[in-house]
Amino acid sequence: MNAKNQVNKKMGCVFNVQRYSVHDGPGIRTIIFLKGCPLSCRWCSNPESQYAEPELAFNRNKCIGTSECFRCSTFCAFDAISEAADGKISIDRQKCTKCFRCVAACPSKAMHTFGKMMSAKEVLDSIESESMFYARSGGGITISGGEPLHQIDFVEEIFKEAKRRRIDVTMETCGFADWEKLQRAAGYMKSILFDIKSMDPVKHEEYTGVSNELILQNLQCLREAFPDLQIFVRTPLIPGFNDTEEDIKAILTFIKDMPNVKYELLPYHRMGQQKYEYLDRPYEMIEEKLQDETYSKLQSLVSAKREIH
Ligand code: SF4
Ligand code: SF4
């Protein structure tokens, strides 16, 4: 079997491909978002990334209404769709088997899927036309999520195929994975984007569902095992969770003596709100807003304290 055929055998669940990004790794990059994440961050702006399988989404604003349409209900063999009080539809997620027949039947695309199974070759072929920009700008592809390490076999296939095509690869990770998986991925990268959300294990677990111990240990192991790897440590600034000087100083202290590490803050935004509605899930952080003064103050702190090695 040749290398091409081997690539085709491994499939992964991709929910978005974002082109011409300049914020997620060096140069101009294409970001490939994979589904599945071991964390459940309260502020997550990509709720469609949390589960590993394709999901059914419903955009109420696009629905024509049951009096004129209701085709989705006709095609649902599991009695999961009923009429809602506003004349549109309601989905019983307990009954839904994710067969997606209603998606094909819906004339207005109110029903749609988050996530598509793809091979590594399909992913790389779909971004072939951008390759010339990567070479000129020092860019490439960034695998994001969700948590890419959740689909390590698929990620490794993408990385192998990208290397074969001389495309630079990097990854955005929450760091919560077996060291063996992180080690496998790190061997292909010149740089990595690694999130540290908080140094407080109790608070970390309260807001993300897991302790930070494995994440911090993985960062230390990564630094020691791959000294040439450029690590960009990033902290999403979340109001009420980690937006104090004390929180950020603790992270800066942790990475202070690590060579070849850069640090940046990512301001919280509420862009995922509508997608929670599409999935019938509550958005816990809906009222929270990061104050501009807080962000500026913490940015100044980072600039003053952090030495770039
Ligand atoms: S995905 Fe299938 S089971 Fe679920 S609502 Fe649509 S048709 Fe029914
Ligand atoms: S098929 Fe689509 S547009 Fe028609 S009722 Fe169902 S969700 Fe609405």
Q: Which features would summarize this protein structure in a list?
A:
single chain; 309 residues; TIM Barrel; Alpha-Beta Plaits; 2 domains; two-stranded antiparallel ribbon; 34% helix; 21% strand; binds iron/sulfur cluster
Can you walk me through this structure?
This protein has 309 residues and is an alpha/beta fold. The protein folds into two domains: 3-52 and 115-305, Aldolase class I (TIM Barrel, Alpha-Beta Barrel); 55-114, Alpha-Beta Plaits. The protein contains twelve helices and twelve strands. The protein has helices at residues 3-9, 71-75, 101-105, 120-126, 131-137, 152-164, 179-186, 201-208, 213-225, 245-255, 273-278, 292-305; strands spanning 11-21, 29-34, 55-58, 81-83, 89-91, 111-114, 116-119, 140-144, 168-173, 191-195, 230-237, 261-267. An eight-stranded mixed β-sheet has the order 7-1-2-8-9-10-11-12. It has a two-stranded antiparallel ribbon with strand order 3-6. It has a two-stranded antiparallel ribbon with strand order 4-5. Helix 6 (152-164) links the parallel strand 8 and strand 9. Helix 6 packs parallel to helix 7 (179-186) and helix 10 (245-255) runs parallel beside helix 12. It is globular, with a radius of gyration of 21 Å. The chain starts with a helix and ends with a helix. Residues 1-8 have low confidence and may be disordered. Bound molecules: iron/sulfur cluster (2 copies). One iron/sulfur cluster is lined by residues 56, 75-76, 78, 80-81, 91, 96-102.
